[in-house]
């Protein structure tokens, strides 16, 4: 399990692979089913852009144990590690307590770099009170929230959430993260059109981010990438 639980890879922007990625999502699980999500390709055995980058598939048959993740982080962390990022295929904050407890442990282990989570931002659908505050207290520095819409109906149509009031809860969580002093980024996919649903322009998303209180420098615009053709698992 460990090869795809904590991993890193070099990129032109990060040639020394200073970011350590933590994958704790079992079975690529997410409460959304975004039209452009490459998770369904990965489930069907087709490679996914993230798995391609990671050089490994990210399938975990079950959620890992706290001790196993901590041990893997100890093994793979080096003096060059500047950031630890919880990412998926799927939604990491469905394992809220596991993520929070690992972040706390990272701090007590003396890691002084950045700690980040990439999320669908729907944690308030399953976690009461103020999850942003809990994460900030644990030591979270940065959060990247996938938004991909500017209104509730549009969100339902693009991201197909399982929960009611998902978009409202997402917007609430964005505001909570800002209020709690977490460096908050919003991400939006552009360039997707399946004939039924079309994403908006970067300018429209920037405008909506401003309404939520997020500055332009914290808006991530991602170009839609169609599925890769080669089979990573073969
Ligand atoms: S929120 Fe992310 S992981 Fe979940 S379905 Fe959408 S794109 Fe996929």
Automatic annotation (TrEMBL):
Does Transmembrane count among this protein's keywords? no
What are the UniProt keywords, alphabetically? 4Fe-4S, Iron, Iron-sulfur, Metal-binding, S-adenosyl-L-methionine
Q: Which PROSITE patterns match?
A: RADICAL_SAM
Source taxon at top rank:
Archaea
Instruction: State the InterPro entries in the record.
Output: Aldolase_TIM, rSAM, rSAM_sf
One term of GO molecular function: 4 iron, 4 sulfur cluster binding
Q: In this protein, which residues make up the domain named Radical SAM core?
A: 14-234
Necessary cofactors: [4Fe-4S] cluster
Q: Which Pfam families match?
A: Radical_SAM (PF04055)
Q: Known CDD domains for this protein? A: Radical_SAM
Could you identify this protein by its name? Radical SAM superfamily protein
Organism, by scientific name, is Candidatus Bilamarchaeum dharawalense
Q: What is the lineage of its organism?
A: Archaea, Candidatus Micrarchaeota, Candidatus Micrarchaeia, Candidatus Anstonellales, Candidatus Bilamarchaeaceae
């Amino acid at each position: 399990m460990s090869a795809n639980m904590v991993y890193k890879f070099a990129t032109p922007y990060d040639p020394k692979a200073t970011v350590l990625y933590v994958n704790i999502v079992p079975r690529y699980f997410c409460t959304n089913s975004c039209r452009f999500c490459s998770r369904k390709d990965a489930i069907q055995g087709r490679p996914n852009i993230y798995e391609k980058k990671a050089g490994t598939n990210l399938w975990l048959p079950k959620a890992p144990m706290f001790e196993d993740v901590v041990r893997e982080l100890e093994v793979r962390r080096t003096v060059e590690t500047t950031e630890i990022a919880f990412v998926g295929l799927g939604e990491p904050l469905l394992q809220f307590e596991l993520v929070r407890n690992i972040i706390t442990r990272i701090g007590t282990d003396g890691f002084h770099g950045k700690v980040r989570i990439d999320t669908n931002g729907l944690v308030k659908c399953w976690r009461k009170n103020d999850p942003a505050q809990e994460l900030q207290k644990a030591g979270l520095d940065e959060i990247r929230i996938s938004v991909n819409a500017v209104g509730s109906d549009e969100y339902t149509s693009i991201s197909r959430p399982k929960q009611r009031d998902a978009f409202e809860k997402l917007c609430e969580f964005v505001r909570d993260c800002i209020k709690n002093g977490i460096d908050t980024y919003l991400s939006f996919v552009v360039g997707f059109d399946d004939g039924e649903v079309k994403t908006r322009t970067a300018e429209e998303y920037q405008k909506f981010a401003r309404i939520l209180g997020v500055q332009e420098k914290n808006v991530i615009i991602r170009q839609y990438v169609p599925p890769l053709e080669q089979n990573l698992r073969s």
